[in-house]
Amino acid sequence: MITAHLKKVRLRSAISAEEERVIRGLISETRTFPPDRMIVRAGEKLTNSLLLLDGWLIRCKDLPSGDRQIMEIHVAGDFADLHGFTLKRLDHDIVTISDCVIGVVPHDRLNEITEKYPHLTRVYWLLTNIDAAIAREMALSLGQRSAISRMAHLFCELHVRLGVAGKSGESAFEFPMTQREMAECLGLTVVHVNRTLQELRRRRVVETANGQLVILDKKALAALAEFDPLYLQLERRVL
């Protein structure tokens, strides 16, 4: 089940058979979780990081009022909290939004990588930097993009990221987010999310049905989003 993660790694840098063996050996156990389950609470002391093998997770923060802001979406192949290896405590929660399979990676195994496998250390540093770039792009959407542009951008990004993990088709992918979760991600009301989604449907750009999102017109969606995947660092490089 670690295939999605290996696809994500190999896209950015070639790894040897020995390095693949080390990556496969990172996971001490796997756990399954249903949707809407908090699996890391802000402030908890961490001794493991979590590798998402299947499903969707979110990083989020809550206000005292109960309002929630989703900071990032994680899909199969992502480390949800690799930064927790050095921080030891997160300032945000990690919550499932679909059925999830999680690989538990003890921090002592990550520490061994930093001491014995410098190339893999640089690979995981790169992946952490890409997570930061995704967060910056979301901040740009929340601050400057229109509602229809930020929704289009989210769909474009997810299609690319799921494609890297082998989890999307040419124009469709599973989409478990509710309109409430989309509102919490995009900084909109649920009513505004519904209207924006209806407008994308009216323009015949996307369609949603049976837990799937179908992109009907990729060029139109990318144009609405002004989508440039540069920040996703999709090319392979020597590290």
> What gap, in angstroms, lies between the N and C termini?
26 Å
| Helix share, percent | 40-55%
CATH topology of the largest domain: Jelly Rolls
Structural class designation: alpha+beta
> Do you know the CATH architecture of the largest domain?
Sandwich
- The average pLDDT is 96
Chart the SSEs and their pairings:
Blueprint lengths: L2 H10 L4 H8 L4 E5 L4 E3 L7 E7 L2 E6 L5 E7 L9 H4 L5 E4 L3 E7 H10 L1 H27 L2 H18 L7 E3 L4 H8 L3 H13 L3 E4 L2 E4 L2 H8 L14
Antiparallel strand pairs: 1-7, 2-6, 3-7, 4-5, 4-6, 8-10, 9-10
Helix pairs in contact: 6-8, 6-9, 7-8
Report on the architecture of this protein:
- This protein has 239 residues and is of the alpha+beta class.
- The chain has helices spanning 3-12, 17-24, 84-87, 107-116, 118-144, 147-164, 179-186, 190-202, 218-225, and strands at residues 29-33, 38-40, 48-54, 57-62, 68-74, 93-96, 100-106, 172-174, 206-209, 212-215.
- The strands form 3 sheets. The protein has a 4-stranded antiparallel sheet. A 3-stranded antiparallel sheet has the order 1-7-3. Strands 8-10-9 form a 3-stranded antiparallel sheet.
- A hairpin with a 5-residue loop joins strand 4 (57-62) and strand 5 (68-74).
- Helix 6 (147-164) crosses helix 8, helix 6 (147-164) crosses helix 9 and helix 7 packs across helix 8.
- The radius of gyration is 18 Å and the shape is globular.
